[in-house]
Specification:
three-stranded antiparallel sheet, alpha+beta, about 350 residues, 11 helices, single chain, BirA Bifunctional Protein, domain 2
């Protein structure tokens, strides 16, 4: 008997069991009416006669944005879906966590913390990710038309960029995107929405959220979006100075937040203005970021890996000098095409606060 045969014989005698991860999970319950409803949503999505055309435009949008960023000198690191700590998000989300070799880690909600580390601590001063995000929204109420638990985001960041610079970059990207879709996919665009995209060559109108709320007596940012959408027709616009995330810069001298959203007005079967990009100039120092997190009552121990990396590699006295943004690809597709809801972009819908079948 050879040495290999001897080892194989020994393994056979010990009857080593085969252990598969799938043997240790809870199967989907096909008796659950919510699961059955999710299966039916998938059936309807897969047989949607417009699905192929919708996905053509979704593909074109992602391809265009990635190509533009590459042409501007941005590099694309590998994608990371798991992290010891992830973007905190200053609103209600379920803490998506999994077991990772015996330790609990977070599923990445977005890569903003990683973007800050990359552009401030490495030689890569301009980065972007076309990355899946898992963001388990809670308390969405009647906003299920725009919320999904999984989505693709084209997320970019630049060292030494400012609020003003990024406003210009984003406006130009939207102008060029609309022109590209009309020129290269015009027939499909018209088949889906019944008309070409509006000409945005004059740039995007900017509305200051705080000023509009005060002037119009509006209660919140959603009301600002609705009011602003009525002022611009079909043209996408920017809303700035929104009170939200810890890493958005608050300029105390100006008394305002240096952040921005791109919003697309209602069109076609969609009666709502849709925010499809969010970004900001970042909090200007690691000390300011930590204080802002404390003000918002974040558990700082969770962010210890981020602060440890920054402090151990930082050579600029704790300064943060970067700005960026992220496009939600499915939302952008949904809003541009005037679909009934964002889930039309998904062959396998990912409804927020709902079951998944497949």
């Amino acid at each position: 008997m050879t040495e290999i045969q001897s080892r194989q014989a020994g393994i056979g005698k010990r009857h080593v069991p085969l252990t598969l991860g799938v043997q240790r999970i809870e199967p989907v319950n096909l008796d659950d009416p919510h699961v059955l409803a999710a299966l039916e949503q998938v059936r309807q999505a897969l047989v949607n006669p417009r699905l192929r055309k919708i996905l053509e435009i979704r593909t074109a949008i992602q391809h265009f944005l990635c190509s533009e960023l590459i042409a501007r000198g941005y590099v694309h690191p590998p994608i990371y879906m798991l992290a010891g700590c992830t973007d905190p998000l200053n609103h209600w989300t379920y803490p998506a966590r999994i077991n990772y070799y015996g330790a609990e880690v977070s599923v990445t909600q977005s890569l903003i913390l990683q973007k800050i580390l990359m552009v401030m601590l490495s030689e890569a001063g301009k980065v972007f990710w076309a990355s899946p995000n898992v963001r388990m929204e809670m308390r969405i109420g009647r906003k299920d038309y725009k919320y999904t638990s999984e989505f693709m985001q084209v997320d970019f960041e630049k060292r030494d960029a400012t609020y003003e610079e990024m406003i210009g970059v984003i406006s130009e990207l939207m102008q060029r995107l609309y022109a590209y879709l009309n020129d290269s996919h015009g027939q499909t665009i018209e088949a889906l929405r019944g008309a070409p995209l509006h000409d945005v060559s004059d740039g995007l109108t900017i509305f200051d959220a705080a000023e509009v709320k005060q002037a119009q007596g509006l209660p919140d940012d959603d009301a600002v979006e609705k009011w602003a959408a009525k002022q611009v027709g079909e043209t996408p616009f920017l809303i700035v100075n929104l009170k939200r995330e810890a890493y958005d810069c608050y300029d105390s001298a100006l008394g305002r937040f240096l952040n921005y959203d791109v919003v697309i007005p209602p069109f076609g079967d969609n009666p709502y203005p849709i925010e499809c990009l969010s970004g900001a100039e970042r909090t200007r120092s690691i000390g300011d970021l930590e204080q802002r997190m404390m003000d918002l009552k974040y558990p700082l121990a969770y962010f210890a890996p981020f602060f440890e990396l920054f402090s151990s590699l930082d050579e600029n006295g704790g300064k943060i000098t970067c700005a960026g943004a992220g496009f939600g690809i499915e939302r952008l597709t949904f809003a541009i095409l005037g679909l009934k809801d964002v889930h039309e972009v998904y062959p396998f819908p990912r409804m927020a606060e709902a079951k998944i079948a497949i």
